[in-house]
Design a protein that fits this description.
By secondary structure, the protein is of the alpha+beta class. It is built from 4 helices and 8 strands, in the order βαββαββαββαβ. The chain is elongated and about 55 Å long.
Length: 170
């Protein structure tokens, strides 16, 4: 299971390292850290999202509780702690005249499922009449839904005469 902690840190040097130390100290497996320095809160703090992998075992829950307690002792503001709904991450590359054939439609197709979302997109457009490529970074609510999302994208790519490259593990 992936659990996400949303923190707010003071905007001073060393705060991120200080917030990460308890995770290391208690042996918590960090999956990702998103430091949103450009999105300061009205209080002037910096939002940070830390995702950790935990088992359902009591030992992992205790470890996470120890991390949270130490963060609070250090004065780190914990905004929320919760299980992540979208836990399966993957990417798909589409090649062709994707911009002209409805990249927005592709994003909506995924986001409208309710079980998957486009979380990031890289786009390469070498020239107006040349084929472009888009790499969709997607999160889904498990492997089953990741596979279903890929199927939807394959169908849409076929209709739009686009090529699709998917990760090997999907």
């Amino acid at each position: 299971m992936i659990t996400t902690l949303n923190l707010e840190l003071k905007d001073v040097p060393g705060q991120l390292v200080e917030a990460l130390e308890p995770f290391s100290k208690y042996g918590t497996n960090i999956i990702s850290v998103a430091h949103h320095r450009e999105k300061k809160t009205p209080k002037g703090t910096v939002p940070v999202e830390i995702s950790v992998e935990t088992d359902s075992e009591e030992e992992d829950k205790e470890r996470l509780d120890e991390v949270i307690a130490e963060l609070e002792e250090r004065g780190v503001e914990i905004v929320s702690v919760g299980k992540e709904r979208l836990e399966e991450s993957f990417s798909i590359i589409m090649i062709g005249h994707i911009v002209h054939k409805g990249i927005r439609e592709m994003i909506d197709l995924i986001d409208d499922t309710g079980f998957a979302e486009v979380i990031d997109l890289d786009l390469s457009m070498p020239g107006i009449n040349e084929r472009s490529s888009a790499r969709f970074f997607i999160k889904a609510a498990g492997k089953k839904y990741a596979s279903k999302t890929v199927e939807l994208m394959e169908e849409a790519a076929e209709e739009k005469d686009l090529k699709i490259i998917k990760e090997m593990n999907i």
